[in-house]
Amino acid sequence: MGRVTTADQPSGPTLVVGLANPGPDYVGTRHNIGWDILQELASRARPMPASFSTHKKTNCEIAQTRLADTPVVLARPRSYMNLSGGPVAAVAKYFSVAPTDVIVIHDEIDIDFGQVRLKRGGGEGGHNGLRSVSSSLGTRDYIRVRAGVGRPPGRMAVADFVLKRFSKLEQPDVPFLVQDAADAVELLLKHGLDTAQNQVHSA
């Protein structure tokens, strides 16, 4: 059982996934905040920043490194968001990572912009990426790092809202959201879910 569930040293790596859509059209959108956070984590890797490479067997871009003195595999599915599950399940199988040692970072419209929340399991809240991951892993029992992107204004459709870039008013605060979510992942790796939740949710 990995560090995300206990303070004991994990026997294998923890898989940290950032959900996003591929391609330049989606860069900077709310839906791709998971990838932005994954990039921030890669920059924090030691002894040197991690770089991603295509892993054809799993259809992911991955980096094997260490964070918070813990071995991790950082992964970004190369599929579109609603097909994320296949690549996530493939990379978990390839590196022998149990679903309980998978951390999925994603955008969350049910949390105020700029807030970060952590949970294990539960529903997907209409998030197609999470629904795909749960289906492919065969369980909902993985950890989610939920980066709040706020709710769509007025009658704007959720699908349209999450595919838009952050507003000019929000943009200065996006780096803080990215940093806070990356901090939360490092807390998970170092101290486990309960302690991380206590610290993150009381901030």
Automatic annotation (TrEMBL):
Give compartment(s): Cytoplasm
Cross-referenced SUPFAM superfamilies, in alphabetical order? Peptidyl-tRNA hydrolase-like
- What is the predominant subcellular site recorded for this chain? cytoplasm
Q: Locate the active site.
A: H31
Q: Where is this site: Discriminates between blocked and unblocked aminoacyl-tRNA?
A: N21
Question: Which residues does the annotation list for site: Stabilizes the basic form of H active site to accept a proton?
Answer: D107
What is this enzyme's class at the first EC digit?
hydrolase
**One GO MF term, please?**
peptidyl-tRNA hydrolase activity
Recorded catalytic reaction(s): these are: an N-acyl-L-alpha-aminoacyl-tRNA + H2O = an N-acyl-L-amino acid + a tRNA + H(+)
Write down the Pfam families for this protein, in alphabetical order: Pept_tRNA_hydro
Query: What EC number(s) are associated with this protein in UniProt?
Result: 3.1.1.29
Origin, by domain of life? Bacteria
Q: For this UniProt record, give its keywords in alphabetical order, as a comma-separated list.
A: Cytoplasm, Hydrolase, RNA-binding, tRNA-binding
Q: Quick one: a GO cellular component term? A: cytoplasm
Name a single GO biological process. Answer: protein quality control for misfolded or incompletely synthesized proteins
**InterPro entries in the cross-refs:** Pept_tRNA_hydro, Pept_tRNA_hydro_CS, Pept_tRNA_hydro_sf
Q: Which residues bind tRNA?
A: Y26, Y80, N82, N128
**Cross-referenced HAMAP family, in alphabetical order?**
Pept_tRNA_hydro_bact
The record's subunit annotation is: Monomer.
Record family assignment: Belongs to the PTH family.
Tell me the function of this protein: Hydrolyzes ribosome-free peptidyl-tRNAs (with 1 or more amino acids incorporated), which drop off the ribosome during protein synthesis, or as a result of ribosome stalling.
What protein name is recorded for this chain?
Answer: Peptidyl-tRNA hydrolase
Source species: Dietzia lutea
Gene transcribed to yield this protein? pth
